[in-house]
Write a structure and sequence with these properties.
This protein is of the alpha+beta class. The protein has a six-stranded mixed sheet. It has a three-stranded antiparallel sheet with strand order 6-5-7. It contains 18 helices and nine strands. It is globular and about 65 Å long. About 45% of the residues are buried.
Length: about 400
């Protein structure tokens, strides 16, 4: 009789992962029950698993959520023997491996699975029509705004589209502008917030000022809705998304698309595989993680969902080492940044996501809004509350 595991992942369907799980069951005689979660709602689902010690044995989690789950004492750490079974740390992209340990401890709490960087996707013909050089159009926040202004002046119906609802994607996008302005979100030790400091304000102001270039039809999109709009509307010049967008583009559109890194510093994120502390199937859980990190699994599932593998050897193979899209993404992985792995970052991310959504609502409702006043009014009390929480962890 087969053993059984429960595995939760962030996906809309089981199409890409189920063949791998079927292969794993055939090889290891371990049946995997799959639970599908959504990126924008998964955090609350995972918190319930942590609180009640009940649910999946293995889960895919966002890289930024790790610290909070550790603080809740919900995860089983990976010791040296576990890591050796799965692969040496030197096999992994350094950017990815740095995200599996808290900044204040040596324990390994997760295993990197997939990774990606935020990218700009644009239709080349609109840039040509506006007389823009795509090699310089997005290098700085100031150049980015000038690019949008020229696109609008040339009559492009939708110069760009990004989510403005309550979604964690806004935080991932605005990070490039904050970092590019010399700002940060928290101190290196994670004990104090920094998103309410002048440099961070400058980056936030520059990002929200771009709301003037959001056409009426794209002003209230959330989650992945801007991706779909960009793909379906030929009069849309630019969007900011992940590498999966290229997967979803029709062949005719792919031939027109350009890809660039965002101004400032690209956000680097992805997902980890974790084992829950409550599991009684540790050996089977480790076998599943080892299987999912094999080259064939990394390539097939990564290409299916449009993210990159985390192992250096796999990144050196086609198509990652040969196609321009993947090469740009890999450059983003090497030069980009991630949020620090602290015991309170998940809470900070959740609260910032809500506040940034409220800020977009104000910006779009009042075109002449004083951005500095709004940023100070909304972020000062939030920073004070979060500082109290972070100092206690």
């Amino acid at each position: 009789m087969n053993q059984e595991l429960e595995f939760s992942i962030m996906a809309d369907s089981s199409t890409g992962i189920q063949p791998l799980l079927d292969q794993f069951e055939a090889e290891q005689h371990i049946h995997v029950r799959l639970r599908l979660l959504s990126w924008d709602t998964a955090w609350s689902d995972l918190v319930k698993v942590a609180l009640y010690n009940d649910g999946p044995d293995v889960s895919e989690i966002g890289t930024t959520w790790l610290g909070d789950l550790v603080a809740m004492d919900a995860l089983r750490p990976f010791d040296a023997v576990d890591v050796a079974r799965i692969g040496k740390p030197t096999m992994f992209l350094p950017t990815a491996w740095r995200l599996v340990q808290l900044i204040d401890g040596p324990e390994t709490w997760a295993i990197p699975w997939l990774i990606g960087a935020r990218l700009l996707f644009y239709r080349r013909r609109w840039l040509r029509r506006a007389g823009l050089d795509e090699t310089t159009a997005f290098q700085t926040a100031a150049q980015f705004e000038r690019t949008l202004a020229k696109l609008k002046a040339q009559g492009v119906a939708v110069p760009w589209t990004v989510p403005t609802g309550v979604t964690h994607t806004t935080l991932l996008n605005v990070a490039s502008w904050v970092w590019g302005a010399g700002g940060n979100f928290v101190t290196p030790d994670g004990k104090r917030t920094r998103f309410n400091q002048p440099a961070a304000h400058a980056g936030l102001r520059a990002y929200f000022a771009l709301g003037r270039y959001l056409a009426p039809g794209v002003q209230h999109l959330s989650g992945l809705e801007p991706d779909a709009y960009f793909l379906q509307h030929d009069d849309t010049a630019l969007t900011m998304s992940g590498t999966w967008l290229f997967n979803q583009a029709a062949p005719a559109l792919k031939a027109q698309l350009g890809v660039a890194l965002p101004p400032g510093v690209a956000f680097v994120g992805g997902s980890h595989l974790i084992v829950w502390k409550h599991t009684r199937r540790e050996d089977a859980a480790l076998k599943l993680i080892h299987f999912l990190l094999q080259t064939s699994a990394q390539v097939s599932y990564g290409l299916h969902i449009g993210l990159l593998p985390v192992q250096l050897g796999t990144l050196a193979t086609a198509p990652f080492a040969t196609e321009p899209l993947w090469q740009t993404a890999i450059r983003g992985l090497k030069t980009g940044r991630s949020f620090p792995v602290t015991r309170s970052w998940g809470l900070m991310e959740d609260r910032l996501t809500t506040e940034l959504g409220a800020m977009w609502a104000e910006v779009l409702a009042k075109p002449d809004l004083d951005l500095d006043e709004m940023i100070t009014r909304r972020l000062t009390p939030l920073a004070e509350r979060l500082d109290l929480v972070a100092a206690q962890l």
